Amino acid sequence: MVDATDLRVLHLVTAEEVFFTQQIDVLQSKGVDCTVLVVPGQEQVDGDMGARRGPGEYLKFLPRVRRELRRGDYDLIHANYGLTAPYAVTQFRLPVVMTLWGSDVVGFDGLVTKACAWRADAVTVRSEEMRELLGRADVHIVPSGVDMDKFRPIDQTDARERVGWDVEGTHVLFPYSPDYERKNYPLAERVVERTSETMGEEITLQTISGIDHDEVPYYVNAADCVLLTSRHEGSPNTVKEAMACNVPVVSTDVGDVRERLEGVSPSDVGTTEIELGTSLAGVVRARQRSNGRDVVREVSWDRIGDKILNIYKSLD
Fold first, then answer.
1. Predicted TM-score (pTM) of this structure
2. 140-141 and 96-99 strand pairing
3. Which of 65, 76, 273, 292 could bond to 95 as cystine, CB 3.0-4.6 Å?
4. In this predicted model, what pLDDT tens digit does every residue of 45-94 receive, in sequence order?
């Protein structure tokens, strides 16, 4: 077994999203030497880990991985997102860790993932739902972490002035681009419209895209509620980031959201448009911060980093 300070890990990933970069940062802070290889064409699919590239990009990735494995003296290979798994499991020298993020256990991506998972020495998923979809009981449940320093409570008025929202209005944040199909923006629109009509007051549905991640905490804190209407998720960071800011969350029942929001008030999970509207109305009427920060500490990046490190150290 190798000490953390001696570990050299090759990470394969489809796109360097913020949460992946945070994972690398925390592992390196704990003494792991991480090298990252990204499937070519990231600029075409920014914001969607499972977005399609052409066969050409994936064919180009194979020789890059093989060259790096020959050149580097690695202790293990970590495949992040299921579409990178074939490059990891078709080499037979190093132990393989697979980390799955949500959409890679369904559809075509899920077929690739399941075909490769049996060859991995360790598999991590974000939630119990993902473990059931994968069909393996021996996987580790390791949610993505949250940066508790960056995502923190900020005075709502100050946050609204910074992002340019009406200070006196009621604002619900859909924390994605409306064009991100899997996040189901049309449902968010219907829920907010229903809630506005029920309450007899104007509610503004806000969205964010193309925002520097350092500015996102201000948008979250400017909101009365964060609304998640995704069709499927693993362990959505937007929920945990809102919790870290003590901002209430209303969400569809996806991934580990119900587990994360257990004991958080005001916040709620709904399975239908009507339930989501009722929950959102309750949160808006309450007009108070949640206790989410105290609850979400268990999935800070520091603690998640320790879990990943323990998995690494368990592999011979």
1. 0.79
2. unpaired
3. 76
4. 444 544 556 777 888 899 999 999 998 899 999 999 999 999 999 998 99
